[in-house]
Amino acid sequence: MTTILQVEGLRKEYRKASNWLSRLFKQSGASLYAVDDVTFSLRAGETLGLVGESGCGKSTLSRTLMRLYEPTAGTIIFLGENITAHGQKDLRKMRKNMQMVFQDPYSSLNPRMTVREMLAETIRFHQICQTEKELNEYIEYLLVRVGLHARDADKYPKAFSGGQRQRICIARAIAVKPKLLIADEPVSALDVSVQAHILNLLEDLKNEFNLSLIFISHDLSVVKYISDRVAVMYLGKIVEMGTTEEIFQKPVHPYTQALLSAVPRIDQGVREKIGIEGDPPSPYEQHTGCPFFSRCPKRMPHCERETPPFYQSGETHQIRCHLSV
Ligand code: SF4
After folding, report:
1. SS3 at position 160
2. What's this model's pTM, rounded to 2 decimal places?
3. C-beta of 160 in contact with ligand 1 (< 6 A)
4. How many angstroms separate the alpha carbon of residue 89 from the centre of ligand 1?
5. Among 257, 296, 302, which is best to mutate for testing ligand 1, by the most ligand atoms less than 8 A from CB?
6. Which of 77, 119, 136, 279 lies deepest, with the highest CB count within 10 Å?
7. If you measure from the C-alpha of residue 73 to the centroid of ligand 1, how many angstroms do you get, rounded to a whole number?
8. What are phi and psi of 94, to 5 degrees?
9. What is the SS3 assignment for 98?
């Protein structure tokens, strides 16, 4: 299977503004890596689930991949091109092939434009249709394809429910026939009853349009349902990555084990609940050793000093933990 996205050592650093005291002593403000040394690849037609607690860097990673945020270091190879240093003109071309659906369908749509106007704007920008007739037919086709009606094209966003608005956002994303769709918590703002319909829609569109999908969620059941592979993030780093089966059946990293212990399993009852002590440490603090040390139920003395590298374990499974040696 062709690799469509290759990410190597990606970092996104933020600097905290320095205060008068640090300026007096000529100290620079603290910095944090919201995304820290992230490496992974994505194959054509594959769905990669990205999970972790809120604030772990999932959304920053997705926006850095889209080049909505500037990466501090690392490379992003998309469809064989290094897009890390692309200028605005090349980025516009690149974004035709890499689209994003955001968590909040309410703020993603312009309340003053009809659905037809919003979709037409995107389709015209990327020159998908030749004539106005073709454009209007294509918009109506897209709306029907995502489970709405052709007559919905001339309504404003306020006429739709949350689930319907997310369908409109999905229609706008697939309108330009992208190769990669990044869905950032696309169902977490929706009622549980609507979530399954949106997940099924994404799955159908993925197969029909031969899309690759990066699916971001803090909800592990949702990620398990839709993903071929899963990457688990903690404090900006991927700590474990493998097939969905590897991650859910044989998690190795103590953080993954703790996350999964909270997910009810219908087949085998609830797993032994491990729980995670406390909150993640401040990302502005300088860490030595393993970033999960302060909360890890399996920590060993050397974990505090030695940072575990990203080990390859088997063909697809990678873990960042001294236990995997
Ligand atoms: Fe826990 Fe040590 Fe593994 Fe970190 S390296 S997750 S502290 S066992």
Report:
1. coil
2. 0.90
3. no
4. 44
5. 296
6. 119
7. 26
8. -60, -40
9. strand
